[in-house]
Amino acid sequence: MAENNTSDQGHRKVRTGQVVGSKMDKTVVVLVDRMVQHPLIKKHIRRHKRYYAHDEENTCNVGDTVRIVECRPLSKNKRWRLKEILVRAK
What we know:
By secondary structure, this protein is mostly beta strands.
């Protein structure tokens, strides 16, 4: 699910993932899954990472599929910004 496309603002990293936390003010936690191949046994393994993203209008809810873009450091842990909501949770 991870994408390494460039955005409109130069060469910024873009990731797609699911919102797993939205209890903070103007911040969401996005879980990004990726598949990597094990170097020895060549089996594909699912790896995931959590990113803190800035959500200015508090529009995201848990379960939404979103696209985030890398940006300047906004706080101790926040280095990503919400670009768009792809799929709303039911």
